[in-house]
Every structure is written in structure tokens, then in C-alpha cells.
Design goal:
Layout (H helix, E strand, L loop, with lengths): L3 E12 L2 E12 L2 E6 L6 H8 L7 E6 L2 E3 L4 H7 L1 E4 L11 H5 L6 E2 L2 E2 L1 H15 L14 H14 L4 E5 L7 H16 L3 E5 L3 H7 L2 E6 L2 E7 L5 H9 L19 E9 L5 E8 L3 E5 L6 H8 L7 E6 L2 E3 L4 H6 L2 E4 L3 H5 L6 H5 L8 E2 L2 E2 L1 H15 L15 H15 L3 E5 L7 H16 L3 E5 L3 H7 L2 E6 L2 E7 L5 H8 L5
Parallel strand pairs: 3-10, 3-11, 6-9, 9-10, 15-22, 15-23, 18-21, 21-22
Antiparallel strand pairs: 1-2, 1-4, 4-5, 7-8, 11-12, 13-14, 13-16, 16-17, 19-20, 23-24
Length: about 500
């Protein structure tokens, strides 16, 4: 590691009802990957938004390349050489990949935008990153994982001296993560300073040099990664050690009835002849690589995407699902992997989001019973340990993990019997993960049936009673948890079907 390039000292920041940063310190050196860790709501993303001019600090100093700085916008920070890759995607869906990467700094040929040149430069970036994305593709047509890789390409395209990666691997496959790490190591060799925010402990040990830990908006300490254990870091984050052992046997009674049966489902090119059964009280894991068709299968069952053929049975009765409202009427709830796009309304309160899926239950004549709404929202804030000053707080002011808990509360309020959890712990720290795991197990014990889509193998093995594996739009295998291993799941996830 080289000389110090960035120092943040005694940074303080408050929002209405929330003291988000309480005199936080961070030091980044040239040629290092510096992890920034903490539970959801610890203040990591807020600290980085202060650094990059998205938020103004209340007090403290930022020193960059030996000079005190105070950026007033993300563009000012970018121009100085500090770029952030956000956890939440910020691309414009109607534009092409190349147009998104170079937006605001387009190549010109005379007075006209030179799309050909932008496509060529974007292709060079993707070649350097060793990923296959068409620069001319419309952004909205890409998977969440590929959209994230485009965010990373956009950051790299700037002449950056410090790059902040905020949960960059949350939506990536193992192969994409390997490529990301190669890119990060290449940037480190070029003497860039890298701030790496992640909740994945294994990644931290592999890619980082030092770890700074935050808790409840405060600075806890900084460790040298190679001299620290996983438990050291977790203890600093949450004040306790959390163990998540794999499940060794199914918790589902042998005589548990089938509550959802899907036969020969086809929906677009990503869902091709998929069949499976889901039992009462079961957590059915869906595993596979990015682009396997797991999310598309869930969206078809929920009526978000059109079904071309196949049958769906709920509690033995054949049902027709042409829209999400049909699915909800049949007792199916869906927690999307993209919570901001499909799960919550960020400019509404916690209470309003909690009751959104069953508003008719909270009406008193033509008026909403606000007292009843707040009471049920408070119940789920307590049950899920959601960090919020009150149920009247706007969801936009919550951390990503706490936003996810609000989505879960919405479907629990609806009392759906079949719950589809699509990447339920994406971008969520180990403490919050443990709470959601306990909640899912309790829901299953209470008789709810859960489909859990996850890209984390440890999560699949930790939570599932049975596992369905998909590859390229087809079901390639099914296995009970007692026989499941990472190896046989990965073999099925890469199996080609004739």
C-alpha cells in the first residue's frame, strides 16, 4: 500500500429523526482495497454519499490528495477523481448500454452524438472486464446482474483515483464476481484507492487489505484483513457472533399437502417447460446461475409476465393467473429482487407501504384508518427489528436492508399463504440476514409455503428443505436438502438439457 490519498475525519451528518453519522473516520491509501463494513443502517452508504457530494456533511473534514475538499455534487467529485458504483442501479432503462455509460459526456461528431464511437468505447470497456454485453442493447432488457456490471464499467470509464464499490457483487454470479476481482486487482496495481462495501465475509478476506467497521453511525475501528478472523469482524459489526449452519434435513412433514403445483410452464425464452410442487410449511430453494430463468419463473407464476402455456394449481384447484392481482387473490405474495422497482414506494411511509397490498382492510368508509394502519406497521417493525425512528418515516430514508424488511411486512400483512422470496437477503448484512432467516423458518413452521430464489449457495443450503435447480430456462434437477452439496447443485446448474 502507498501513501494516504483520502482521509475523512470526524464526519457528522443528521437527517430528521436520525443521527446517521456520528464523528466517523476513514483513511484510504493508494493501491489498497479498503473494506467498509457494518450492519444495515450503520451509515456506510451515507458516509460515501457525503464523500461524493450527494449529501453535505454537518461537520468534519475530507482531505483528498493532501488538500481539504468539500464536494457539492457527484459530478464535482467525479471531476476530481472520486467515483461511486451505487448498490441501487441508477441507469436509464430506455437508453442503450453505451448511452448510459457515457451520459453527460457523449462523444460528438460535429453537433451530433457519435453513437458509433460510444459503442466502440463501451465494447473496449467490456472486453477489458472480460464480460459479454452488447453496448447497443437497451438497458431495461438486461438482467439486474448485467446492469450492475454496466454501472461498474461506467465508473471505470472515468479517470478515477478513488473508486467506491457499494455492494458491487450483490447481483453477480460467481463467474462475474471472479471477473470483478480481476478488475479490482488491476485497479489496485495502478495505485488507485478502492473502498469496497460488502456484507459477504468471504469476499472481504479474498479481495481487501484493511477493514473499517461502523456500527449505528459510529466508527468502531480498522483492522488489517489478513491478521483478522471472520468472527473478529462480525463481533465489531454486531457485538455478537452469528453462526449459520447448513440445514441437514427437511423440516416438512411427509404428509404435508401440495399447496402449489406448476406443470409444463412456458413464458418467453427464459422459462421453458418448468414443473415443480411446493408443500405446506416448505422452503423450496431455487438455485442456478444468473440468467437461469429463476426470476422469470417466479414472475410468470405471479402474473407479472405473460404465461404462454402450462398449468398452475393452488391447493389442488387449477387457477388462471394473468396479472399480479390474480396471484394475490389466490394467496400468492412476491418479494422482488429489485425492491425499489417493484417492492416499495420510496416516497411513502413505512406504514403506508406495509398496508399497500391489502388497503381494503384498513378502510373506514372512504377514509383510511390511520390508527389501525400504524398499529399493524408497528407490529411488523417490532417483529422484524426494522430500524426506523417511527412508522411515519419515509421509506427512502431507510437503509437497503430495512427497506427489504418493509417489503416482507407488506406481504405478511396481506397474510399470503404462498410467498416467493427472490434474493431475500441481497445487500443485507449478517445480523439482518439472521433475523430474516429466523422469520422465514417461523413462517414455514406456521404453515406458510415459501419459494426462495438465491444466488448464494450458502443461503440455499442453510434454508432450503428441497432444492430445484435451473439452467438456461429449464429445470435441470431437484434434490432433497439431506443429499445436497455445493458440488452436485453446481453440476446441475451447468448441465445442458437435450
Amino acid at each position: 500500500m502507498g501513501e494516504v490519498i483520502l482521509t475523512m475525519k470526524e464526519i457528522d451528518k443528521s437527517f430528521p429523526g436520525v443521527h446517521a453519522l456520528d464523528h466517523v473516520n476513514l483513511e484510504v491509501r493508494k493501491g489498497e482495497v479498503h473494506a467498509l463494513m457494518g450492519e444495515n443502517g450503520a451509515g456506510k452508504s451515507t458516509l460515501m454519499k457525503v464523500l461524493t457530494g450527494i449529501y453535505s456533511k454537518d461537520s468534519g473534514t475530507i482531505t483528498f490528495e493532501g488538500k481539504e475538499v468539500d464536494f457539492h455534487s457527484a459530478k464535482e467529485a467525479q471531476d476530481a477523481g472520486i467515483v461511486i458504483v451505487h448498490q441501487e442501479l441508477n441507469m436509464l432503462g430506455h437508453l442503450t448500454v453505451a448511452q448510459n455509460i457515457f451520459i453527460g459526456r457523449e462523444f460528438k461528431k460535429g453537433l451530433r452524438i457519435d453513437d458509433k464511437k460510444m459503442n466502440e468505447e463501451a465494447k473496449k470497456l467490456f472486453d477489458r472486464m472480460n464480460i459479454d454485453i452488447d453496448p447497443k442493447e437497451t438497458m431495461s432488457k438486461l438482467t439486474v446482474g448485467k446492469q450492475q456490471m454496466c454501472e461498474i464499467a461506467k465508473a471505470i470509464s472515468h479517470d478515477a483515483k478513488v473508486i467506491v464499490f457499494d455492494e458491487p457483487s450483490a447481483a453477480l454470479t460467481e463467474t462475474e464476481i471472479d471477473e470483478l476481482f480481476k478488475i479490482i486487482r488491476d485497479l489496485r496495481e495502478k495505485d488507485l484507492g478502492i473502498v469496497y462495501i460488502s456484507h459477504r465475509m468471504d469476499e472481504i478476506k479474498v479481495i481487501t487489505d484493511r477493514v473499517t467497521v461502523m456500527r449505528d453511525g459510529s466508527y468502531v475501528g480498522t483492522l488489517i484483513t489478513k491478521d483478522s478472523t471472520k468472527d473478529d469482524i462480525i463481533n465489531m459489526m454486531v457485538g455478537r457472533v452469528i453462526y449459520e449452519d447448513p440445514k441437514t434435513e427437511s423440516m416438512v412433514p411427509e404428509d404435508a399437502p401440495v399447496v402449489l403445483k406448476v406443470e409444463h410452464l412456458k413464458a418467453g425464452h427464459m422459462v421453458n417447460d418448468v414443473s415443480f410442487e411446493l408443500h405446506r410449511g416448505e422452503i423450496l430453494g431455487f438455485s442456478g446461475l444468473m440468467g437461469a430463468g429463476r426470476t422469470e419463473t417466479a414472475r410468470a407464476i405471479f402474473g407479472a409476465d405473460q404465461i404462454e402455456s402450462g398449468d398452475i394449481y393452488v391447493n389442488g384447484k387449477k387457477v388462471t393467473i394473468k396479472s399480479p392481482s390474480d396471484a394475490v387473490a389466490n394467496g400468492i405474495g412476491y418479494l422482488s429482487e429489485d425492491r425499489k422497482r417493484y417492492g416499495i414506494v420510496v416516497d411513502k411511509t413505512v406504514a403506508e407501504n406495509t398496508t399497500m397490498a391489502c388497503m381494503e382492510n384498513f378502510m373506514n368508509g372512504i377514509f383510511i384508518d390511520k390508527k389501525k394502519e400504524r398499529e399493524i406497521a408497528q407490529k411488523y417493525v417490532d417483529d422484524l427489528a426494522t430500524k426506523t425512528p417511527s412508522v411515519d418515516q419515509l421509506v427512502v430514508n431507510l437503509s437497503g436492508g430495512n427497506q427489504q424488511k418493509v417489503v416482507i411486512a407488506k406481504w405478511l400483512t396481506r397474510n399470503s399463504d404462498i410467498l416467493i422470496f427472490d434474493e431475500p437477503t441481497r445487500g443485507i448484512d449478517v445480523g439482518a440476514k439472521s433475523e430474516i432467516y429466523k422469520l422465514m423458518n417461523q413462517l414455514a413452521a406456521d404453515g406458510k409455503a415459501i419459494i426462495m430464489i438465491s444466488s448464494e449457495m450458502t443461503e440455499i443450503l442453510r434454508m432450503s428443505d428441497r432444492i430445484v435447480v435451473m439452467c438456461e430456462g429449464k429445470k435441470t434437477g431437484e434434490i432433497g436438502i439431506a443429499e445436497a452439496t455445493q458440488e452436485n447443485i453446481m453440476n446441475m446448474a451447468t448441465r445442458e438439457i437435450e
